[in-house]
Design goal:
single chain; 281 residues; mainly alpha; 434 Repressor (Amino-terminal Domain); Arc Repressor Mutant, subunit A; two-stranded parallel ribbon; 4 strands; globular
């Protein structure tokens, strides 16, 4: 049995995917993975070592950042499998590895707790949200309130035509993203629950870009930026990635303080962060 397979299965469960089937198919299936589900079962059960160019696809679907200790452990297990024995790994690979500073267990623990409760959106669900601003914001609004709303009231709150909101209700209900409550009112299924978009890949890229455009358009209409900041400095990509992972952990902690009652003084906010290489050399 390989080391990589059981480690992959553990991270898959920690990431909120209860079964191999859920992980493979909700992450995009054959459209994303360069192997069949049956072959994935061989990988996870430890009966086969995946090709090196397949491993980044698997890790990307797991949503484990390179700064995470689980990332390092998974890649180490894979390299040990490639080497064939612990002794060969220690002789060939281990001397090349630089021991990082001992990481704090807190970010990894927070991530595990949050992701184990998460719902992974399918590609079909992502594409439905990307198809129109109305569908996206109907979904997001109902994820952020514990109220059940009809099309007229929700249209008034988010500023879209009532017919478009009603059409979004029907589409999102069919995809099990909202549910019908009493009368003509609808309620979010994922209220107070973290959900994950399918991982970035050529299959999902256009849909993810449309979702970002929906967010930008609404933020522009609703008041723009609340706060902005930026830094320019010289560093290594590894340090910048580590800093970005820390910021992501902070954002996830902030999300834990979400409110689900649309009362005076509250709003739906979008916290965005990115790090870009501005000048090489």
């Amino acid at each position: 049995m390989t080391r990589f397979g059981p480690a992959l299965a553990r991270l898959r469960r920690d990431g909120g995917f209860a079964t191999p089937y859920a992980f493979y198919h909700r992450s995009g299936g054959r459209r994303v993975f360069p192997f069949t589900f049956q072959y994935y079962l061989k990988i996870e059960s430890g009966r086969s070592v995946p090709r090196p160019d397949w491993v980044p696809v698997l890790i990307s679907a797991l949503r484990v950042p390179p700064s995470d200790s689980d990332y390092r452990a998974l890649v180490t297990d894979y390299l040990k499998d490639l080497c064939g024995s612990e002794e060969a790994y220690e002789a060939l690979i281990a001397p090349l590895a630089v021991s990082p500073a001992a990481p704090s267990p807190a970010p990894a623990l927070i991530r595990k707790l949050m992701y184990s409760q998460a719902y992974a959106l399918s590609i079909a669900q992502l594409e439905a949200l990307a198809a129109s601003e109305e569908a996206f914001w109907v979904f997001e609004y109902l994820c952020n309130t514990d109220e059940a709303l009809d099309a007229a009231e929700l249209a008034r709150r988010i500023g879209y035509p009532q017919k478009a909101v009603a059409a979004a209700f029907a589409r999102l209900t069919a995809l099990k993203l909202v549910r019908r409550a009493s009368g003509r009112r609808y309620k979010g299924i994922l209220v107070a629950r973290r959900f994950l978009y399918p991982t970035d890949s050529p299959v999902t890229r256009k849909a993810r870009e449309r979702v970002r455009a929906h967010i930008a358009a609404m933020a522009e209409r609703s008041g723009g930026d609340v706060a902005r900041s930026g830094l320019i400095f010289r560093s290594t990509e590894a340090n910048v990635r580590a800093a970005a992972a820390d910021v992501k952990a902070r954002l996830e902690q902030a999300q834990a303080g979400s409110l689900y009652e649309a009362k005076e003084g509250t709003a739906i906010y979008f916290l965005d962060f990115r790090a870009r290489r501005a000048l090489s050399g």
